[in-house]
């Protein structure tokens, strides 16, 4: 417990990084890029609309992006298992 002047106790709460990332992306409806585990030549881009404690993601307007050719394949709304995620990064619109 931390204390705020005059003996008032303030409880500190740890916020998981994915929660703050989700809140920020929802606020601006920003796109994210997901780096995939063992798929270095392909990434997924989309808007996070949901997630769980295992970092499974639901992405809206998702696209498969091939890094070498820059080809994009529209996927729509998908569920991506957390086991396949290496990194999340914001994509400038």
Number of strands: 7
Q: Which fold name fills CATH's third level, the topology of the domain at 30-90?
A: SH3 type barrels
Strand order of the main beta sheet, please? Answer: 6-5-4-3-7
Assembly of the depicted chains? single chain
Q: How far is it from the N-terminal to the C-terminal residue, by CA?
A: 41 Å
* Overall outline: elongated
Helix content: 10-25%
CATH class of the domain at 30-90: Mainly Beta
Radius of gyration: 17 Å
How much of the residues is beta strand, in percent? over 45%
Order of helices and strands: EEHEEEEE
GO biological process, one term: spliceosomal snRNP assembly
GO molecular function, one term: RNA binding
Subcellular location: Cytoplasm, Cytosol; Nucleus
Organism: Salarias fasciatus (Jewelled blenny)
Structure write-up:
Pfam families: LSM. Belongs to the snRNP Sm proteins family. InterPro entries: LSM_dom_sf, Sm, Sm_dom_euk/arc, snRNP-E. It is found in: Cytoplasm, Cytosol; Nucleus. This is Small nuclear ribonucleoprotein E. The protein is built from one helix and seven strands. The protein has a domain at 30-90: SH3 type barrels. The model has no long low-confidence stretch (mean pLDDT 84). The strands form two sheets. A five-stranded antiparallel beta sheet has the order 6-5-4-3-7. β4 and β5 (57-66) form a beta hairpin. By secondary structure, it is mostly beta strands. It has one helix at residues 17-28, and strands at 2-4, 8-10, 31-36, 39-51, 57-66, 72-80, 85-91.
């Amino acid at each position: 417990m931390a204390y705020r002047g005059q003996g008032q106790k303030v409880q500190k709460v740890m916020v998981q990084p994915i929660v703050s990332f989700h809140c920020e992306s929802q606020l601006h409806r920003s796109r994210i890029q997901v780096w995939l585990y063992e798929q270095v030549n392909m990434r997924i881009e989309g808007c996070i609309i949901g997630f769980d404690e295992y970092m499974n993601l639901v992405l809206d307007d998702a696209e498969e992006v091939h890094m070498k050719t820059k080809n994009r394949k529209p996927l729509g709304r998908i569920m991506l298992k957390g086991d396949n995620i290496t990194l999340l990064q914001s994509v400038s619109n």
